[in-house]
Specification:
51% helix; single chain; alpha+beta
Length: 312
């Protein structure tokens, strides 16, 4: 993480500024990593006191935004932007069932543009929650299925974000997410077991960590750090790197065409790719189209926009 220093003339000014900088630096060390927007939608539940869902939303918000999930140093301006949108479809006693839309975004260097890194709908979310129950973070043991789900996504956010800034930079957090999955698999709760569902939490983790599909992580660094970040200063160079990075996606498709990683990439990136290639040379648009069309045949309308560019 970058640090900025300030120099002034005069001993008194140096001391004062030094103290301010020390306080700000210390606060930065303690700053939590995530800036997470949380929303709970309970419109499908009728005839229930809505205060339990308001309590749940506040509990989720506090958990994601006040706990610290790593030893990394983040200043307030460096926090990772993410979003959890929980739709509760069933509520019986203390048991809630629903789905969770999960999104992670990242700024592009030297621009005001924010890009989506991860966009996924977790359809198998079940947990027990009683109004006012505290959600307690414990790195060494799982307190409940709800906290396990939150821990999993917090670590996944960290892993993916770090991978976009350095090759394999998110490995420590993928390891932590794997530990959460392993512990949760013995709980009997749905959404965790390998081969239970090809789009559950275990499958999402495997999409980035299994050897057959690990090129997804190589794509993260090349697409974001060497591609999008570079496009601000050198559009042609950055776009060429993005085109090259799509070959990693192609490799994943050839080795594991059913991996959820491919649908995550589609939901996160296809609209963005339309914009990226809008002013690209025809040969480059054609290259991107030829890679993406076999992978996403049902998205031909969007892919045709990539192929035709801005002039069509």
């Amino acid at each position: 993480m970058k640090r900025k220093g300030v120099e002034k003339n005069g001993v008194a000014k140096r001391v004062a500024i030094g103290m301010i900088a020390l306080i700000a630096w210390s606060a930065g060390l303690q700053a939590q990593e995530l800036r997470c927007q949380v929303e709970v939608n309970s419109q499908k539940i009728e005839g229930t006191n809505k205060s339990v869902f308001e309590s749940l939303q506040q509990s989720l918000n506090d958990y994601m935004n006040e706990n610290k999930f790593s030893n990394a140093t983040f200043s307030p301006t460096e926090k990772i932007d993410c979003r959890l949108y929980l739709t509760v479809s069933e509520y019986d006693g203390d048991r809630m069932k629903g789905d969770l839309q999960v999104q992670l975004s990242r700024p592009v260097y030297n621009s005001s543009y924010t890009t989506t890194v991860f966009n996924f709908k977790d359809n198998r979310v079940e947990f027990d929650y009683k109004e006012g129950d505290p959600l307690i973070f414990n790195e060494t043991s799982q307190q409940s299925n709800l906290t396990a789900i939150l821990d999993y996504y917090a670590y996944l956010f960290l892993a993916l974000d770090f991978d976009t800034f350095s090759p394999q930079g998110g490995q420590p957090y993928f390891d932590k997410a794997a530990s959460v999955v392993q512990a949760a698999q013995s709980s009997g709760e749905i959404g965790w077991k390998a081969f239970e569902d090809n789009k559950n939490r275990s499958a999402v983790l495997s999409a980035y960590t299994d050897p057959a599909t690990s090129s997804m992580r190589k794509l993260l660094y090349n697409y974001y750090r060497r591609g999008l970040d570079e496009m601000v200063m050198s559009p042609d160079k950055g776009r060429a790197t993005i085109t090259e990075s799509l070959k990693d996606l192609e490799a994943v498709y050839k080795s594991s065409p059913m991996t959820v990683g491919l649908s995550i990439f589609r939901d996160s990136k296809l609209d963005e790719l339309v914009n990226i290639y809008s002013k690209a040379p025809a040969t480059e648009r054609e290259a991107a189209y030829n890679i993406l069309e076999p992978i996403y045949p049902t998205d031909r309308d969007r892919l045709e926009k990539i192929k035709k560019g801005a002039d069509q």
